[in-house]
Automatic annotation (TrEMBL):
Cofactor names: FAD
Reactions this protein catalyses: a 2,3-saturated acyl-CoA + A = a 2,3-dehydroacyl-CoA + AH2
GO molecular-function term, one example from the UniProt record: acyl-CoA dehydrogenase activity
Domain Acyl-CoA dehydrogenase/oxidase N-terminal: 10-120
Organism of origin: Trujillonella endophytica
This protein's name: Probable acyl-CoA dehydrogenase fadE25
Length: 384
């Protein structure tokens, strides 16, 4: 196996982590419980991240962005998720929505969209899934047909993160039904485009601060030059995007798990039963040790996968990114569940953050491809 893309954290990475942690603890964490309880958008987080330039660090300098590498972007997402998973979807989905453009759009389209995201004037969402086409995304039914100097879109996308708050939407639609996956194209839609509408918010188990809605396209008409790349290349672009963004879901998972472990350590230190701190019991110590081990292993795998994408060496990229996403999210589910356990009855109440973290962690096993789909990707790579 090639070792290209193995990583070395730099002083700059450490400085980014320290800066984001300070912002997260000061300007994001105090609102996290309220954002969850009221299912409201974490606007304070958006403002704080944007003011510090951490809302979309991955955008290249040529388009007014920070040009941060993939590990730096993971660190930003991880540190925000440590205090509030919903807020971590701001940098994460800005990357997800814009990667198709960065990877495959014309220079004109890049110049049109990317600076507005880099400057924090706009956010961008990613519209691939449909109600009847989730894991089997190529079975999508949203259509786009060329009409003179325009493309006209019809259909519905489902479960689209940050819809309503995003100005831009990367949307995959069928342009040639005969060709199935090779007949899908990618487009950029603006929320003011005629025929575009956002549906009501889904009522969810977790990440309640991040709006998830349907997108409706009813003869939605966009200029012809808003296609990303050539007609028929949209599905490839959509899948290639996931190779660069699955590590960011891994980073979210590592972050929420770390937040839960930190909370569990500080609670268990203070909690006394049988006349002593519960941390005196080896049963508790071993749980904490396991949580710490699993998080550390997940963090390294996430950084290795991110570094492989950054290296330009695609060898094994899909397998590593799928492994990072699936492993880290399985760890997040286990660690947050164990954190609730370590809090005892208190962990089951909304007086402490761990019940929110456990609910939030669950989505990392589902979106950007369920963990069953990640395992399919890994197995296909092994068996090809
Ligand atoms: C909160 C939230 C936010 C989301 N954000 C976005 C977004 O921003 N953009 C976007 O495009 N999508 C988004 N999604 C959609 C998400 O990516 C899909 O829900 C996910 O890919 C699974 O698709 P599905 O829900 O249709 O499940 P299904 O495909 O119906 O799967 C049902 C079950 O069958 C299993 N399964 C399916 N096929 C196989 C197989 N071949 N082998 C083994 N098991 C299989 C699945 O793992 C799952 O357990 C979001 C979803 C949620 C809930």
């Amino acid at each position: 196996m090639s070792t290209t893309g193995l990583y070395q954290l730099t002083e700059e990475h450490d400085a980014i982590r320290a800066a984001v942690r300070e912002i997260a603890e000061r300007a994001i964490e105090p609102f996290a419980a309220e954002v969850d309880a009221e299912s409201r958008y974490p606007i304070e987080a958006q403002k704080a991240l944007t003011a510090a330039g951490f809302h979309a660090t991955h955008i290249p300098e040529a388009y007014g962005g920070e040009g941060a590498d993939a590990i730096a972007t993971c660190i930003v997402i991880e540190e925000v998720a440590r205090v509030d998973m919903s807020a971590s979807l701001i940098p994460a989905v800005n990357k997800l929505g814009s990667m198709p453009i960065i990877l495959s759009a014309s220079e004109e389209l890049k110049q049109k969209v990317l600076p507005s995201i880099a400057e924090g004037r706009a956010m961008i969402s990613y519209g691939l899934s449909e109600r009847e086409a989730g894991s089997d995304a190529a079975a999508m039914r949203t259509r786009a047909r060329r009409d003179g100097d325009t493309w006209v879109l019809n259909g519905t996308k489902a479960w689209i993160t940050n819809s309503g708050v995003s100005e831009w939407y990367t949307v995959m639609a069928v342009t040639d039904p005969e060709k199935r996956a090779n007949g899908i194209s990618a487009f950029v839609v603006h929320r003011d485009d005629p025929g575009f509408a956002v549906g009501p918010k889904e009522r969810k188990m977790g990440i309640k601060g991040s709006p998830t809605c349907e997108l409706y396209f009813t003869d939605c008409t966009i200029p012809a030059d808003r296609i990303i790349g050539e007609p028929g290349t949209g599905f490839k672009t959509a899948l290639r995007t996931l190779d660069f963004t699955r590590p960011t879901i891994g980073a979210q998972a590592v972050g929420v798990a770390q937040g839960a472990l930190d909370a569990a350590v500080s609670y268990a230190r203070e909690r006394k039963q049988f006349g002593r701190a519960v941390t005196d019991f080896q049963g508790v110590q071993f749980m904490l040790a396991d949580m710490s081990m699993q998080i550390e292993a997940a963090r390294h795998l996430v950084y290795v996968a991110a570094a492989r994408g950054e290296s330009g060496d695609d060898t094994d990229l899909g397998r590593l990114c799928a492994a990072a996403k699936a492993f880290a999210s399985d760890v997040a589910m286990k660690v947050t569940t164990d954190a609730v356990q370590l809090f005892g009855g208190a962990g089951y109440t909304q007086d402490f953050p761990v019940e929110r973290m456990m609910r939030d962690a669950k989505i990392t096993q589902i979106y950007e491809g369920t963990n069953q789909i990640q395992r399919l990707v890994i197995a296909r790579s092994l068996l090809k």
